[in-house]
Design goal:
Keywords: Membrane, Transmembrane, Transmembrane helix. The chain is built from three helices and six strands; from the N terminus they run H-H-E-E-H-E-E-E-E. It has 129 residues and is α+β, with helices and mostly antiparallel strands. The protein has two domains: 38 residues; 71 residues, Pantoate--beta-alanine Ligase, Chain: A,domain 2. The longest helix is centred in the first third of the chain and has 26 residues. The N and C termini lie far apart (74 Å).
Amino acid sequence: MRYSFDLKILMRSPRRLSASTIVEVVIAMVIMVTVMLVAVSLIGRLSISGIPLVRIRAQAQAETLASQDAGDGKTGESSWDIGGLRYIRKVSLYKDYTDLRRIQVEAFQNGVQLCLVSRLVKVGDEKNL
């Protein structure tokens, strides 16, 4: 059996939508939305070698934040909210050395620490030690 769709015929004789057609469309839309929500929740649980992707992403962002403005010599604490995660960067003196700084970046999701990145940096030097 061959089906064909002729737009001219449809335009000449408009049909009313029956209640069953509307119900079928609504059911199809509900199923689509449910499938999309399940897919999104599964994507959030993906992992590589047992490590959740959110933790890998947090580690990469923390590495970037730890290396920014590494040698400016300032100490203190700053924080950012990036992509649903909270990053806290602490810069402090390293022991008794006036030219060394310890940079620590922690990543949190809902109050749970995902990772900690620590760097030792020489003041005035943009390279990490």
